[in-house]
Amino acid sequence: MYRDGPALPRRAQPCPAWHRSCQGANLSPAGAETSTAALGRPSSAPNTAPPAGNEAKPPNAPSSAGCRAWRRRWAAPGAAGAAAVRAGNPGVPPPPSPGRDRPHVPAPFSLLQDGETFTYRPARGLAVGDPHTAAAGWAFPFPGVLLLEDFLSRAEEAELVRAMDQDPWKPSQSGRRKQDYGPKVNFKKQKLRAGCFVGLPSFSQDIVKRMKAHPILEGFLPVEQCNLDYLPERGSAIDPHLDDWWLWGERLVSLNLLSKTVLSMSCDSENSIQLFNCKKVTVAVHLPRRSLVVLYGAARYKWKHAIHRKHIEHRRVCITFRELSTEFSLGGKHENLGKELLDIALSFQGKPV
Ligand SMILES: O=C(O)CCC(=O)C(=O)O
Fold this sequence. Notes:
This protein has a domain at about 150-345: Alpha-ketoglutarate-dependent dioxygenase AlkB-like (Jelly Rolls, Sandwich), CATH 2.60.120. Helix content is about 15%, strand content about 25%. It has seven helices and 16 strands. The protein has helices at about 35-40, 70, 80-85, 155-165, 205-210, 295-300, 335-345; strands at about 115-120, 125-130, 140, 145-150, 170, 175-180, 185, 190-195, 220-230, 240, 250-255, 260-265, 280-285, 290-295, 305, 315-325. The strands form three sheets. Strands 3-2-1-13-12-15-10 form a seven-stranded mixed β-sheet. Strands 4-14-11-16-9-6-5 form a seven-stranded antiparallel β-sheet. The chain has a two-stranded antiparallel ribbon with strand order 7-8. Strand 5 and strand 6 form a beta hairpin. The protein starts with about 35 loop residues before the first helix and ends in an 8-residue tail after the last helix. The structure holds 2-oxoglutaric acid (AKG). The site of 2-oxoglutaric acid has 10 residues, from strand 9, strand 15 and strand 16. Its cofactor is Fe(2+). This is AlkB homolog 4, lysine demethylase. InterPro entries: AlkB-like_sf (IPR037151), ALKBH4 (IPR032857).
C-alpha cells in the first residue's frame, strides 16, 4: 500500500517560480520550512495517483503532484513512533503485514477512522492529528496553504464591508448571499464571455496590490472576485468542492472578514492519500478574522474545501479572488479572450454582475 502506489502523472509544464512547495519545502507564513529532519526521513514511496472521475487533475494545471515535495508521503510518528525512527525505521511505518513480525511499530492504521480530523499548523506547514483522537501524535506535510494573519486592520475591514454593503447581495445556495464580479461563464459547456462584467470593484484595488507583495502571489492577476456572506441564522455553509480548473488558475485567494471560521479540507479518494488506512482524511485550517488564505498546489487540486455550518458563529464575509488558468493566459489557446477579461477586471470600475 505504501510502496506500490500507481505511477505518477507526467508533469505538464515547469512549476512557476513562486511554487515553493516544489523545491522540497513547505512555505509557512513565518517562512519556516518543514524539513525532513522534523519528520523523520521521507518515504521513498511514489506519489499519489490522480483523483478519479471529475476530480481528475487538469492536464494543464500547474502540477504539484509532479513536484518532489508532494511525491513523497511522509508520516511523523508521535512519541511512540519516534523510537521507531531512532531505531532506523524509515519514517513511514510499513503497512500491517500478518506475515511479518514488527513488535516495535505501533499499529495506528486500523485505529484511524474515516474522516479523522487533523489540524493545519501554519508555522510548520503540517497537518497534525488532533489530541484525544486516534490521529494524535501523527502528522504529515500539508503543502499548498499560505495563511497571512492580520492582513487588514480593523478599520480597513469595517470600511471594506461598509463598501460591499452598499451593493445588493443576491441569495445563493446553502444560506449564503453573494456578489459576483466576473465574466459570464457556463462551466458545463465551457462557454465564456464578458457579458456585463465591467471590472473588479474599486475598493479591491489596494487589497490586490498588497497581496501581490507576497512571493506566493507574485504575478497574481485576479479576473474574478466573489463576495460571500454567511450568517448562522441562515444556516450558511458551503459544501466540500474543488474549484473549476478549466477557467480558474492555480491560486485561490480568500479574505476572511468579520469572524473567524474553519476551512475544512477533505481528501476522500483512496488513491490520493495513503498515509492512513482510511478513505477520508480531513484537515481543519483555522482562519482568523481578517486573515488572507491562499490555496495552491495540492491544497487547491487534491483537497476539497468547505465551510461547515457549525463553523459560522457570527456574520462572516469572504472575498475570493481567482486568476486565469494557463489556457487563458499568455501563450494559451484562449489568450486573447483572457487578455480582454483581464483588462476589464483590472480597470477596477466594477459593479456586481
Ligand atoms: O467561504 C469560503 O471561505 C470558501 C468559498 C469557496 O469555497 C468558494 O467560493 O468556492
